[in-house]
Amino acid sequence: MKLTLSSSPHQRTPRDTGQVMRLVIYAMLPGLALQWYFFGWGVIVQAILAVLAAIVTEAAVLTLRGKNIRHAVSDFSAVLTALLLAVSLPPLLPWWMTVIGAVFAIAIVKQVYGGLGYNMFNPAMVAYVMLLISFPAAMTMWMPPQTLAASTVNLGDTLSVIFTGFSNAGYDVTQLRTDWDGVTMATPLDAVKTGLTQGLTYSETLNMPVFSGAFAASLGAGWAWVSLAYAAGGLALLRLRVINWHIPVSMLASVVVVSLLIHLINQDHYASPLFHLFNGSVMLGAFFIATDPVSASTTNKGRLIFGGLIGFWVVIVRTFGGYPDAVAFAVIIMNMAVPLIDYYTRPRTYGHHSHVRSGKGKRP
Amino acid sequence: MNDYQDLTWQGLWKNNPALVQLLGLCPLLAVTATLINGLGLGLATTLVLIGSNITVSAVRHWVRNEIRIPVFVMIIAAFVTVIQLLMNAFTYQLYLALGIFIPLIVTNCAIIGRAEAFASKNAMLPAAYDGLVMGLGFTLVLMLLGGIREILGAGTLLSGADRLFGSIAHDWKFTLFATEQPFLLAILPPGAFLGMGLLIAAKNTIDANLAKRRQPAQQQVTRARVTAES
Protein backbone atom coordinates (compact mmCIF):
# COMPACT_ATOMS: atom_id res chain seq x y z
CA MET A 1 0.00 0.00 0.00
CA LYS A 2 1.31 3.38 -0.95
CA LEU A 3 0.94 6.17 1.60
CA THR A 4 1.08 9.70 0.29
CA LEU A 5 2.78 12.25 2.45
CA SER A 6 1.93 15.87 1.93
CA SER A 7 2.24 19.09 3.83
CA SER A 8 -0.78 21.03 5.08
CA PRO A 9 -3.41 22.16 4.19
CA HIS A 10 -4.92 18.70 3.90
CA GLN A 11 -8.43 19.83 3.20
CA ARG A 12 -8.84 20.24 -0.54
CA THR A 13 -10.93 23.01 -2.02
CA PRO A 14 -13.71 21.77 -4.24
CA ARG A 15 -12.89 24.37 -6.90
CA ASP A 16 -9.67 25.18 -8.67
CA THR A 17 -8.54 28.68 -9.57
CA GLY A 18 -10.01 28.56 -13.05
CA GLN A 19 -13.46 27.62 -11.74
CA VAL A 20 -13.40 30.44 -9.17
CA MET A 21 -12.33 32.97 -11.79
CA ARG A 22 -15.03 31.77 -14.20
CA LEU A 23 -17.70 32.07 -11.50
CA VAL A 24 -16.63 35.65 -10.79
CA ILE A 25 -16.75 36.41 -14.52
CA TYR A 26 -20.27 34.94 -14.78
CA ALA A 27 -21.34 37.04 -11.79
CA MET A 28 -20.11 40.13 -13.61
CA LEU A 29 -22.21 39.44 -16.67
CA PRO A 30 -25.49 41.06 -15.45
CA GLY A 31 -23.64 44.28 -14.66
CA LEU A 32 -21.80 44.11 -17.97
CA ALA A 33 -25.09 43.59 -19.82
CA LEU A 34 -26.68 46.60 -18.14
CA GLN A 35 -23.61 48.70 -18.86
CA TRP A 36 -23.99 47.68 -22.51
CA TYR A 37 -27.69 48.61 -22.37
CA PHE A 38 -27.03 52.04 -20.88
CA PHE A 39 -23.68 52.98 -22.37
CA GLY A 40 -23.70 51.21 -25.70
CA TRP A 41 -21.44 48.93 -27.68
CA GLY A 42 -18.29 50.62 -26.46
CA VAL A 43 -18.45 48.60 -23.23
CA ILE A 44 -18.36 45.31 -25.15
CA VAL A 45 -15.64 46.52 -27.54
CA GLN A 46 -13.45 47.64 -24.62
CA ALA A 47 -13.98 44.31 -22.87
CA ILE A 48 -12.94 42.33 -25.95
CA LEU A 49 -9.92 44.57 -26.55
CA ALA A 50 -8.77 44.34 -22.94
CA VAL A 51 -9.25 40.57 -22.74
CA LEU A 52 -7.31 39.95 -25.96
CA ALA A 53 -4.48 42.26 -24.91
CA ALA A 54 -4.33 40.69 -21.45
CA ILE A 55 -4.19 37.12 -22.76
CA VAL A 56 -1.53 37.93 -25.35
CA THR A 57 0.55 39.76 -22.71
CA GLU A 58 0.16 36.94 -20.20
CA ALA A 59 1.29 34.39 -22.79
CA ALA A 60 4.20 36.55 -23.93
CA VAL A 61 5.50 37.24 -20.42
CA LEU A 62 5.11 33.61 -19.38
CA THR A 63 7.10 32.55 -22.44
CA LEU A 64 9.85 34.98 -21.42
CA ARG A 65 9.80 33.57 -17.91
CA GLY A 66 9.90 30.00 -19.18
CA LYS A 67 6.63 28.98 -17.52
CA ASN A 68 3.82 26.76 -18.69
CA ILE A 69 1.62 29.03 -20.78
CA ARG A 70 -1.45 26.82 -21.09
CA HIS A 71 -1.77 26.22 -17.38
CA ALA A 72 -1.55 29.90 -16.48
CA VAL A 73 -3.68 31.28 -19.28
CA SER A 74 -6.45 28.71 -18.76
CA ASP A 75 -7.05 29.85 -15.17
CA PHE A 76 -8.94 32.92 -16.50
CA SER A 77 -7.30 35.29 -14.03
CA ALA A 78 -6.03 37.51 -16.87
CA VAL A 79 -9.52 37.55 -18.40
CA LEU A 80 -11.04 38.64 -15.08
CA THR A 81 -8.42 41.37 -14.63
CA ALA A 82 -9.10 42.62 -18.16
CA LEU A 83 -12.87 42.63 -17.60
CA LEU A 84 -12.58 44.54 -14.33
CA LEU A 85 -10.39 47.08 -16.10
CA ALA A 86 -12.68 47.30 -19.13
CA VAL A 87 -15.86 48.02 -17.17
CA SER A 88 -14.06 50.87 -15.40
CA LEU A 89 -13.07 52.55 -18.67
CA PRO A 90 -15.13 55.14 -20.55
CA PRO A 91 -16.82 53.22 -23.39
CA LEU A 92 -15.36 55.32 -26.20
CA LEU A 93 -11.75 55.36 -24.97
CA PRO A 94 -9.21 55.13 -27.85
CA TRP A 95 -8.25 51.50 -28.39
CA TRP A 96 -4.54 51.96 -27.69
CA MET A 97 -5.20 53.32 -24.20
CA THR A 98 -7.19 50.21 -23.33
CA VAL A 99 -4.41 48.03 -24.71
CA ILE A 100 -1.75 49.96 -22.75
CA GLY A 101 -3.85 49.53 -19.61
CA ALA A 102 -4.30 45.78 -20.06
CA VAL A 103 -0.63 45.23 -20.92
CA PHE A 104 0.44 47.30 -17.90
CA ALA A 105 -1.92 45.39 -15.59
CA ILE A 106 -0.61 42.00 -16.65
CA ALA A 107 3.05 42.65 -17.43
CA ILE A 108 4.03 45.20 -14.79
CA VAL A 109 1.55 44.88 -11.94
CA LYS A 110 1.06 41.11 -12.04
CA GLN A 111 3.92 39.28 -13.74
CA VAL A 112 6.82 41.47 -12.61
CA TYR A 113 5.81 40.73 -9.02
CA GLY A 114 5.79 36.99 -9.77
CA GLY A 115 2.45 36.26 -11.42
CA LEU A 116 -0.88 35.19 -10.01
CA GLY A 117 -0.78 34.89 -6.24
CA TYR A 118 2.23 37.13 -5.79
CA ASN A 119 0.97 40.50 -6.97
CA MET A 120 0.81 43.02 -4.15
CA PHE A 121 -1.66 45.32 -5.88
CA ASN A 122 -4.91 44.72 -7.69
CA PRO A 123 -3.75 44.75 -11.34
CA ALA A 124 -6.97 46.16 -12.80
CA MET A 125 -7.08 49.05 -10.35
CA VAL A 126 -3.41 50.00 -10.76
CA ALA A 127 -3.85 49.95 -14.54
CA TYR A 128 -6.96 52.11 -14.19
CA VAL A 129 -5.13 54.65 -12.02
CA MET A 130 -2.17 54.58 -14.41
CA LEU A 131 -4.51 55.43 -17.31
CA LEU A 132 -6.32 58.05 -15.24
CA ILE A 133 -3.19 60.00 -14.36
CA SER A 134 -1.68 59.50 -17.83
CA PHE A 135 -4.72 60.50 -19.89
CA PRO A 136 -6.95 62.51 -17.54
CA ALA A 137 -9.01 64.06 -20.33
CA ALA A 138 -9.81 60.89 -22.24
CA MET A 139 -10.41 58.87 -19.07
CA THR A 140 -13.20 61.16 -17.89
CA MET A 141 -15.12 61.27 -21.19
CA TRP A 142 -18.12 59.22 -20.13
CA MET A 143 -21.10 59.14 -22.46
CA PRO A 144 -24.51 60.00 -20.99
CA PRO A 145 -26.73 56.94 -20.50
CA GLN A 146 -28.45 56.14 -23.77
CA THR A 147 -31.86 56.46 -22.15
CA LEU A 148 -31.12 60.17 -21.61
CA ALA A 149 -29.00 60.91 -24.66
CA ALA A 150 -30.43 62.79 -27.58
CA SER A 151 -28.87 60.35 -30.02
CA THR A 152 -27.40 56.93 -29.50
CA VAL A 153 -24.12 55.71 -30.93
CA ASN A 154 -24.49 52.55 -32.98
CA LEU A 155 -21.95 49.73 -33.26
CA GLY A 156 -20.32 51.00 -36.43
CA ASP A 157 -19.84 54.48 -35.03
CA THR A 158 -18.55 53.02 -31.76
CA LEU A 159 -15.88 50.97 -33.53
CA SER A 160 -14.98 53.95 -35.69
CA VAL A 161 -14.60 56.28 -32.71
CA ILE A 162 -12.56 53.79 -30.69
CA PHE A 163 -10.18 52.93 -33.52
CA THR A 164 -9.91 56.19 -35.46
CA GLY A 165 -11.09 58.84 -33.01
CA PHE A 166 -14.00 59.94 -35.22
CA SER A 167 -17.44 58.55 -35.93
CA ASN A 168 -18.54 57.78 -39.49
CA ALA A 169 -20.07 61.24 -39.71
CA GLY A 170 -16.82 62.81 -38.52
CA TYR A 171 -17.66 63.65 -34.91
CA ASP A 172 -15.12 63.08 -32.15
CA VAL A 173 -15.90 61.92 -28.62
CA THR A 174 -16.33 65.43 -27.24
CA GLN A 175 -18.91 66.25 -29.89
CA LEU A 176 -20.68 62.92 -29.49
CA ARG A 177 -21.15 63.35 -25.76
CA THR A 178 -22.43 66.89 -26.18
CA ASP A 179 -26.17 67.09 -26.56
CA TRP A 180 -27.74 68.88 -29.53
CA ASP A 181 -28.38 71.81 -27.19
CA GLY A 182 -24.68 72.04 -26.39
CA VAL A 183 -24.89 70.65 -22.85
CA THR A 184 -22.44 67.95 -21.86
CA MET A 185 -23.71 65.45 -19.40
CA ALA A 186 -21.20 64.40 -16.78
CA THR A 187 -21.33 61.32 -14.59
CA PRO A 188 -23.32 61.75 -11.35
CA LEU A 189 -20.13 61.94 -9.30
CA ASP A 190 -18.68 64.51 -11.70
CA ALA A 191 -21.89 66.52 -11.78
CA VAL A 192 -22.08 66.82 -8.01
CA LYS A 193 -18.37 67.60 -7.64
CA THR A 194 -18.50 70.31 -10.32
CA GLY A 195 -21.77 71.68 -8.98
CA LEU A 196 -20.42 71.98 -5.46
CA THR A 197 -17.33 73.83 -6.63
CA GLN A 198 -19.60 76.23 -8.54
CA GLY A 199 -21.37 77.12 -5.30
CA LEU A 200 -24.51 75.02 -5.70
CA THR A 201 -25.82 73.10 -2.73
CA TYR A 202 -25.92 69.34 -2.79
CA SER A 203 -29.69 69.18 -3.32
CA GLU A 204 -29.46 71.71 -6.14
CA THR A 205 -26.91 69.59 -7.96
CA LEU A 206 -29.42 66.74 -7.90
CA ASN A 207 -31.64 68.71 -10.29
CA MET A 208 -29.14 68.18 -13.10
CA PRO A 209 -30.42 66.13 -16.03
CA VAL A 210 -28.14 63.18 -15.27
CA PHE A 211 -30.22 62.46 -12.16
CA SER A 212 -33.54 62.25 -14.01
CA GLY A 213 -35.19 58.94 -14.66
CA ALA A 214 -33.80 56.92 -11.78
CA PHE A 215 -35.80 55.39 -8.96
CA ALA A 216 -34.43 57.70 -6.27
CA ALA A 217 -33.56 61.37 -6.33
CA SER A 218 -29.83 61.12 -5.74
CA LEU A 219 -29.13 58.33 -8.21
CA GLY A 220 -27.87 58.67 -11.74
CA ALA A 221 -30.21 57.08 -14.26
CA GLY A 222 -28.08 54.30 -15.69
CA TRP A 223 -25.48 54.06 -12.97
CA ALA A 224 -27.83 53.01 -10.20
CA TRP A 225 -29.12 50.05 -12.23
CA VAL A 226 -25.58 49.01 -13.13
CA SER A 227 -24.62 49.21 -9.44
CA LEU A 228 -27.62 47.08 -8.49
CA ALA A 229 -26.69 44.50 -11.10
CA TYR A 230 -23.16 44.25 -9.75
CA ALA A 231 -24.53 43.99 -6.22
CA ALA A 232 -26.79 41.14 -7.34
CA GLY A 233 -23.85 39.38 -8.97
CA GLY A 234 -21.86 39.90 -5.80
CA LEU A 235 -24.63 38.41 -3.64
CA ALA A 236 -24.63 35.37 -5.91
CA LEU A 237 -20.89 35.03 -5.34
CA LEU A 238 -21.49 35.21 -1.58
CA ARG A 239 -24.19 32.54 -1.86
CA LEU A 240 -21.81 30.30 -3.84
CA ARG A 241 -19.12 30.93 -1.21
CA VAL A 242 -16.69 32.25 -3.79
CA ILE A 243 -16.09 35.34 -1.65
CA ASN A 244 -16.45 35.91 2.09
CA TRP A 245 -18.92 38.42 3.50
CA HIS A 246 -16.32 40.31 5.53
CA ILE A 247 -14.92 42.66 2.91
CA PRO A 248 -18.14 43.69 1.10
CA VAL A 249 -20.11 44.14 4.32
CA SER A 250 -17.44 46.12 6.13
CA MET A 251 -16.72 48.25 3.06
CA LEU A 252 -20.37 49.11 2.39
CA ALA A 253 -21.09 49.69 6.07
CA SER A 254 -18.13 51.98 6.35
CA VAL A 255 -19.19 53.93 3.24
CA VAL A 256 -22.63 54.42 4.80
CA VAL A 257 -21.35 55.39 8.25
CA VAL A 258 -18.62 57.76 7.09
CA SER A 259 -20.75 59.45 4.45
CA LEU A 260 -23.67 59.74 6.88
CA LEU A 261 -21.47 61.45 9.46
CA ILE A 262 -20.11 63.89 6.89
CA HIS A 263 -23.57 64.41 5.41
CA LEU A 264 -25.01 65.24 8.82
CA ILE A 265 -22.32 67.82 9.45
CA ASN A 266 -23.42 69.87 6.46
CA GLN A 267 -26.22 68.54 4.30
CA ASP A 268 -25.73 71.26 1.71
CA HIS A 269 -22.15 70.36 1.00
CA TYR A 270 -21.78 66.65 1.42
CA ALA A 271 -23.58 63.91 -0.48
CA SER A 272 -25.89 61.41 1.17
CA PRO A 273 -24.98 57.77 1.87
CA LEU A 274 -27.39 56.58 -0.81
CA PHE A 275 -25.61 58.75 -3.36
CA HIS A 276 -22.24 57.28 -2.40
CA LEU A 277 -23.47 53.69 -2.44
CA PHE A 278 -25.12 53.61 -5.84
CA ASN A 279 -22.97 55.96 -7.92
CA GLY A 280 -19.55 55.25 -9.30
CA SER A 281 -17.98 51.88 -8.70
CA VAL A 282 -18.66 51.24 -5.01
CA MET A 283 -20.76 48.12 -5.63
CA LEU A 284 -18.35 46.76 -8.23
CA GLY A 285 -15.51 47.55 -5.86
CA ALA A 286 -17.09 46.00 -2.77
CA PHE A 287 -17.98 42.68 -4.37
CA PHE A 288 -15.51 42.20 -7.22
CA ILE A 289 -12.40 44.33 -6.69
CA ALA A 290 -11.71 44.56 -2.96
CA THR A 291 -12.41 40.83 -2.59
CA ASP A 292 -9.50 39.85 -4.86
CA PRO A 293 -8.05 36.98 -2.81
CA VAL A 294 -4.46 37.80 -3.75
CA SER A 295 -4.15 41.46 -2.87
CA ALA A 296 -6.69 41.60 0.00
CA SER A 297 -6.08 40.76 3.63
CA THR A 298 -6.10 37.05 4.39
CA THR A 299 -7.51 36.86 7.91
CA ASN A 300 -11.16 37.41 8.77
CA LYS A 301 -10.45 40.16 11.26
CA GLY A 302 -8.03 41.69 8.78
CA ARG A 303 -10.67 41.57 6.06
CA LEU A 304 -13.05 43.58 8.22
CA ILE A 305 -10.35 46.23 8.76
CA PHE A 306 -9.32 46.14 5.09
CA GLY A 307 -12.88 46.60 3.79
CA GLY A 308 -13.76 49.17 6.42
CA LEU A 309 -10.78 51.35 5.60
CA ILE A 310 -11.45 51.08 1.85
CA GLY A 311 -14.95 52.41 2.49
CA PHE A 312 -13.53 55.19 4.64
CA TRP A 313 -11.04 56.24 1.95
CA VAL A 314 -13.67 56.07 -0.80
CA VAL A 315 -15.83 58.64 0.92
CA ILE A 316 -12.93 60.82 2.06
CA VAL A 317 -11.18 60.94 -1.32
CA ARG A 318 -14.47 61.41 -3.19
CA THR A 319 -15.46 64.27 -0.89
CA PHE A 320 -12.16 66.06 -0.43
CA GLY A 321 -9.94 64.76 -3.25
CA GLY A 322 -9.39 65.97 -6.77
CA TYR A 323 -10.89 63.03 -8.65
CA PRO A 324 -14.62 62.26 -8.67
CA ASP A 325 -14.38 58.54 -7.92
CA ALA A 326 -12.02 56.95 -5.47
CA VAL A 327 -12.54 53.19 -5.33
CA ALA A 328 -9.34 52.48 -7.27
CA PHE A 329 -7.27 54.81 -5.08
CA ALA A 330 -8.80 53.39 -1.89
CA VAL A 331 -8.11 49.81 -2.97
CA ILE A 332 -4.49 50.61 -3.86
CA ILE A 333 -3.86 52.44 -0.57
CA MET A 334 -5.24 49.51 1.39
CA ASN A 335 -3.35 46.95 -0.74
CA MET A 336 -0.22 48.63 0.60
CA ALA A 337 -1.47 48.24 4.16
CA VAL A 338 -2.30 44.54 3.82
CA PRO A 339 1.02 43.15 5.13
CA LEU A 340 0.66 45.31 8.27
CA ILE A 341 -3.00 44.35 8.76
CA ASP A 342 -2.18 40.68 8.31
CA TYR A 343 0.65 40.96 10.81
CA TYR A 344 -1.55 42.38 13.55
CA THR A 345 -4.54 40.13 12.91
CA ARG A 346 -2.75 36.80 12.72
CA PRO A 347 -5.16 34.24 14.13
CA ARG A 348 -4.19 32.51 17.36
CA THR A 349 -2.73 29.08 16.78
CA TYR A 350 -4.48 26.42 18.86
CA GLY A 351 -2.63 25.96 22.13
CA HIS A 352 -0.71 29.22 21.79
CA HIS A 353 -1.34 32.73 22.93
CA SER A 354 -1.86 35.45 20.38
CA HIS A 355 1.56 36.39 19.05
CA VAL A 356 0.94 40.13 19.31
CA ARG A 357 0.19 40.01 23.02
CA SER A 358 2.60 37.17 23.70
CA GLY A 359 4.85 39.54 25.63
CA LYS A 360 2.36 39.62 28.49
CA GLY A 361 1.58 36.02 29.20
CA LYS A 362 3.99 33.58 27.67
CA ARG A 363 3.20 29.98 28.34
CA PRO A 364 6.00 28.23 30.19
CA MET B 1 46.95 50.19 -18.96
CA ASN B 2 45.08 47.17 -17.65
CA ASP B 3 44.09 49.09 -14.51
CA TYR B 4 42.48 51.78 -16.61
CA GLN B 5 40.56 49.22 -18.67
CA ASP B 6 39.30 47.74 -15.44
CA LEU B 7 38.31 51.20 -14.14
CA THR B 8 36.43 51.86 -17.37
CA TRP B 9 34.59 48.55 -17.16
CA GLN B 10 33.74 49.15 -13.51
CA GLY B 11 32.48 52.68 -14.01
CA LEU B 12 30.49 52.21 -17.17
CA TRP B 13 28.99 48.79 -16.57
CA LYS B 14 29.94 46.41 -13.77
CA ASN B 15 29.80 48.90 -10.90
CA ASN B 16 27.73 51.61 -12.57
CA PRO B 17 26.82 54.23 -9.94
CA ALA B 18 23.19 54.43 -11.04
CA LEU B 19 22.33 50.89 -12.12
CA VAL B 20 24.40 48.84 -9.66
CA GLN B 21 25.35 51.03 -6.71
CA LEU B 22 21.95 52.75 -6.92
CA LEU B 23 23.52 55.98 -5.70
CA GLY B 24 22.33 59.46 -6.53
CA LEU B 25 18.80 58.25 -7.21
CA CYS B 26 17.19 61.49 -6.07
CA PRO B 27 18.48 63.67 -8.93
CA LEU B 28 18.40 60.68 -11.24
CA LEU B 29 14.68 60.25 -10.80
CA ALA B 30 13.80 63.90 -10.44
CA VAL B 31 15.38 65.61 -13.43
CA THR B 32 15.24 62.96 -16.15
CA ALA B 33 12.01 64.11 -17.74
CA THR B 34 13.98 64.98 -20.87
CA LEU B 35 17.25 63.80 -22.36
CA ILE B 36 18.86 67.24 -22.23
CA ASN B 37 18.03 67.70 -18.53
CA GLY B 38 19.61 64.31 -17.86
CA LEU B 39 22.68 65.17 -19.93
CA GLY B 40 23.05 68.55 -18.20
CA LEU B 41 22.90 67.13 -14.71
CA GLY B 42 25.12 64.21 -15.74
CA LEU B 43 27.82 66.54 -17.06
CA ALA B 44 27.65 68.71 -13.95
CA THR B 45 27.97 65.62 -11.75
CA THR B 46 30.86 64.30 -13.83
CA LEU B 47 32.80 67.56 -13.53
CA VAL B 48 32.24 67.62 -9.77
CA LEU B 49 33.32 63.97 -9.54
CA ILE B 50 36.57 64.57 -11.44
CA GLY B 51 37.40 67.66 -9.43
CA SER B 52 36.57 66.17 -6.06
CA ASN B 53 38.38 62.91 -6.83
CA ILE B 54 41.57 64.78 -7.85
CA THR B 55 41.48 67.01 -4.77
CA VAL B 56 40.64 64.25 -2.32
CA SER B 57 43.43 62.15 -3.79
CA ALA B 58 45.86 65.08 -3.53
CA VAL B 59 45.15 65.74 0.15
CA ARG B 60 44.74 62.09 1.17
CA HIS B 61 48.01 61.97 3.14
CA TRP B 62 47.21 65.06 5.18
CA VAL B 63 43.60 64.39 6.14
CA ARG B 64 43.22 62.52 9.41
CA ASN B 65 40.88 59.59 9.26
CA GLU B 66 38.55 60.95 11.94
CA ILE B 67 37.66 64.13 10.07
CA ARG B 68 37.79 62.85 6.49
CA ILE B 69 34.03 63.00 5.83
CA PRO B 70 33.61 66.74 6.64
CA VAL B 71 36.71 67.49 4.58
CA PHE B 72 35.35 65.49 1.62
CA VAL B 73 31.98 67.21 1.86
CA MET B 74 33.63 70.63 1.91
CA ILE B 75 35.74 69.79 -1.12
CA ILE B 76 32.66 68.52 -2.99
CA ALA B 77 30.63 71.55 -1.94
CA ALA B 78 33.32 73.85 -3.27
CA PHE B 79 33.25 72.18 -6.67
CA VAL B 80 29.47 72.14 -6.76
CA THR B 81 29.44 75.89 -6.08
CA VAL B 82 31.87 76.42 -8.95
CA ILE B 83 29.71 74.33 -11.31
CA GLN B 84 26.55 76.05 -10.14
CA LEU B 85 28.00 79.52 -10.79
CA LEU B 86 29.30 78.41 -14.19
CA MET B 87 25.91 77.02 -15.17
CA ASN B 88 24.24 80.16 -13.92
CA ALA B 89 26.56 82.18 -16.16
CA PHE B 90 26.66 80.10 -19.35
CA THR B 91 23.58 77.86 -19.46
CA TYR B 92 21.05 79.95 -17.58
CA GLN B 93 17.94 78.20 -18.97
CA LEU B 94 19.28 74.79 -18.00
CA TYR B 95 20.25 76.20 -14.61
CA LEU B 96 16.61 77.22 -14.10
CA ALA B 97 15.31 73.88 -15.36
CA LEU B 98 17.49 71.81 -13.03
CA GLY B 99 16.81 74.14 -10.11
CA ILE B 100 17.50 72.75 -6.66
CA PHE B 101 19.11 69.61 -8.06
CA ILE B 102 22.36 71.40 -8.94
CA PRO B 103 23.20 72.37 -5.31
CA LEU B 104 21.92 68.94 -4.28
CA ILE B 105 24.83 67.35 -6.18
CA VAL B 106 26.70 67.91 -2.89
CA THR B 107 24.61 65.22 -1.28
CA ASN B 108 24.89 62.83 -4.22
CA CYS B 109 26.18 59.67 -2.55
CA ALA B 110 27.90 58.57 -5.75
CA ILE B 111 30.41 61.41 -5.34
CA ILE B 112 31.23 60.98 -1.68
CA GLY B 113 31.20 57.23 -2.27
CA ARG B 114 33.96 57.51 -4.87
CA ALA B 115 35.92 59.93 -2.67
CA GLU B 116 35.75 57.48 0.23
CA ALA B 117 36.12 54.22 -1.66
CA PHE B 118 38.61 55.14 -4.36
CA ALA B 119 40.11 58.62 -4.39
CA SER B 120 41.27 58.59 -0.76
CA LYS B 121 43.28 55.43 -1.43
CA ASN B 122 44.75 56.03 -4.88
CA ALA B 123 47.05 58.38 -6.75
CA MET B 124 45.74 61.43 -8.52
CA LEU B 125 45.73 60.17 -12.10
CA PRO B 126 43.75 56.97 -11.48
CA ALA B 127 41.43 58.95 -9.18
CA ALA B 128 40.76 61.49 -11.90
CA TYR B 129 40.14 58.74 -14.43
CA ASP B 130 37.82 56.95 -11.99
CA GLY B 131 35.87 60.18 -11.54
CA LEU B 132 35.58 60.54 -15.31
CA VAL B 133 34.26 57.04 -16.04
CA MET B 134 31.99 56.92 -12.99
CA GLY B 135 30.57 60.27 -14.03
CA LEU B 136 30.14 59.06 -17.60
CA GLY B 137 28.40 55.90 -16.40
CA PHE B 138 26.03 58.04 -14.34
CA THR B 139 25.51 60.44 -17.27
CA LEU B 140 24.73 57.61 -19.70
CA VAL B 141 22.02 56.24 -17.41
CA LEU B 142 20.59 59.74 -16.93
CA MET B 143 20.51 60.24 -20.70
CA LEU B 144 18.99 56.82 -21.35
CA LEU B 145 16.27 57.29 -18.75
CA GLY B 146 15.67 60.88 -19.86
CA GLY B 147 15.48 59.79 -23.50
CA ILE B 148 13.02 56.97 -22.79
CA ARG B 149 10.81 59.20 -20.67
CA GLU B 150 10.93 62.03 -23.22
CA ILE B 151 10.00 59.73 -26.12
CA LEU B 152 7.17 58.06 -24.21
CA GLY B 153 5.90 61.18 -22.54
CA ALA B 154 6.17 63.80 -25.27
CA GLY B 155 7.13 61.98 -28.45
CA THR B 156 10.20 64.19 -28.91
CA LEU B 157 13.92 63.85 -28.42
CA LEU B 158 16.55 66.50 -27.59
CA SER B 159 13.95 69.15 -26.83
CA GLY B 160 15.58 72.14 -25.15
CA ALA B 161 19.01 71.31 -26.58
CA ASP B 162 19.69 75.04 -26.94
CA ARG B 163 19.62 75.33 -23.15
CA LEU B 164 22.82 73.32 -23.01
CA PHE B 165 24.53 73.87 -26.36
CA GLY B 166 23.53 77.45 -27.09
CA SER B 167 21.76 78.87 -30.09
CA ILE B 168 23.30 76.47 -32.63
CA ALA B 169 21.14 73.73 -31.14
CA HIS B 170 17.82 75.45 -31.74
CA ASP B 171 16.64 72.98 -34.38
CA TRP B 172 18.16 69.83 -32.89
CA LYS B 173 14.86 68.74 -31.42
CA PHE B 174 13.13 66.14 -33.51
CA THR B 175 9.61 64.92 -33.09
CA LEU B 176 9.11 61.17 -33.36
CA PHE B 177 5.35 61.36 -33.19
CA ALA B 178 2.91 64.14 -32.46
CA THR B 179 0.16 63.42 -29.98
CA GLU B 180 -2.54 65.44 -28.36
CA GLN B 181 -2.70 62.98 -25.49
CA PRO B 182 0.83 62.50 -24.18
CA PHE B 183 1.57 59.54 -21.92
CA LEU B 184 1.82 61.68 -18.79
CA LEU B 185 2.88 58.80 -16.57
CA ALA B 186 6.30 58.72 -18.23
CA ILE B 187 6.95 62.34 -17.33
CA LEU B 188 5.50 62.13 -13.81
CA PRO B 189 7.67 60.76 -10.96
CA PRO B 190 6.16 57.22 -11.09
CA GLY B 191 7.42 56.96 -14.66
CA ALA B 192 10.95 57.60 -13.43
CA PHE B 193 10.71 54.82 -10.87
CA LEU B 194 9.20 52.38 -13.37
CA GLY B 195 11.75 53.29 -16.06
CA MET B 196 14.62 52.93 -13.60
CA GLY B 197 13.34 49.55 -12.45
CA LEU B 198 13.06 48.35 -16.03
CA LEU B 199 16.58 49.61 -16.85
CA ILE B 200 18.02 47.73 -13.85
CA ALA B 201 16.07 44.63 -14.90
CA ALA B 202 17.45 44.92 -18.43
CA LYS B 203 21.00 45.26 -17.12
CA ASN B 204 20.59 42.22 -14.90
CA THR B 205 19.16 40.22 -17.80
CA ILE B 206 22.12 41.13 -20.01
CA ASP B 207 24.52 40.16 -17.21
CA ALA B 208 22.74 36.84 -16.70
CA ASN B 209 22.90 36.10 -20.43
CA LEU B 210 26.60 37.00 -20.55
CA ALA B 211 27.28 34.73 -17.58
CA LYS B 212 25.34 31.91 -19.19
CA ARG B 213 27.30 32.28 -22.41
CA ARG B 214 30.61 32.33 -20.54
CA GLN B 215 29.81 29.37 -18.30
CA PRO B 216 29.98 26.45 -20.80
CA ALA B 217 33.19 27.81 -22.32
CA GLN B 218 34.93 27.79 -18.94
CA GLN B 219 33.74 24.26 -18.20
CA GLN B 220 35.22 22.99 -21.44
CA VAL B 221 38.57 24.53 -20.60
CA THR B 222 38.78 22.91 -17.17
CA ARG B 223 37.75 19.53 -18.55
CA ALA B 224 40.40 19.76 -21.26
CA ARG B 225 43.05 20.52 -18.65
CA VAL B 226 42.01 17.53 -16.53
CA THR B 227 42.28 15.11 -19.43
CA ALA B 228 45.62 16.56 -20.44
CA GLU B 229 47.04 16.03 -16.96
CA SER B 230 45.69 12.54 -16.54
UniProtKB/TrEMBL annotation, chain A:
Membrane topology of this protein: Multi-pass membrane protein
GO cellular component: plasma membrane
FMN phosphoryl threonine: residues carrying this PTM: T187
Entry keyword set: Cell inner membrane, Cell membrane, Electron transport, Flavoprotein, FMN, Membrane, Phosphoprotein, Translocase, Transmembrane, Transmembrane helix, Transport
EC number(s) on file: 7.-.-.-
Keyword Thylakoid: no
TM spans (from-to): 20-38, 44-64, 71-89, 95-113, 125-143, 210-238, 245-265, 271-290, 302-320, 326-345
Main localization of the protein described in the UniProt heading: membrane
Compartment(s) where it occurs, according to its Swiss-Prot or TrEMBL record: Cell inner membrane
Cofactor(s) named in the record: FMN
Domain of life according to the entry: Bacteria
Record GO biological process: electron transport chain; transmembrane transport
Function as written in the Swiss-Prot or TrEMBL entry: Part of a membrane-bound complex that couples electron transfer with translocation of ions across the membrane.
Oligomer and partners: The complex is composed of six subunits: RnfA, RnfB, RnfC, RnfD, RnfE and RnfG.
Protein family membership: Belongs to the NqrB/RnfD family.
Listed name of the protein: Ion-translocating oxidoreductase complex subunit D
Record organism: Alteromonas aestuariivivens
UniProtKB/TrEMBL annotation, chain B:
GO terms for biological process, alphabetical: electron transport chain
EC id: 7.-.-.-
Protein topology in the membrane: Multi-pass membrane protein
Keyword Cell membrane attributed: yes
Origin organism lineage: Bacteria, Pseudomonadati, Pseudomonadota, Gammaproteobacteria, Alteromonadales
InterPro entries named in the record: NqrDE/RnfAE, RnfE
Residue intervals passing through the bilayer: 20-50, 71-90, 96-115, 127-148, 183-202
Protein name (record): Ion-translocating oxidoreductase complex subunit E
Annotated Gene Ontology cellular component terms: endomembrane system; plasma membrane
NCBIfam families: PRK12405.1, rnfE
Homology family: Belongs to the NqrDE/RnfAE family.
Oligomeric form and interacting partners: The complex is composed of six subunits: RnfA, RnfB, RnfC, RnfD, RnfE and RnfG.
Biological function: Part of a membrane-bound complex that couples electron transfer with translocation of ions across the membrane.
Record localization: Cell inner membrane; Endomembrane system
Superkingdom field: Bacteria
Top EC class of this enzyme: translocase
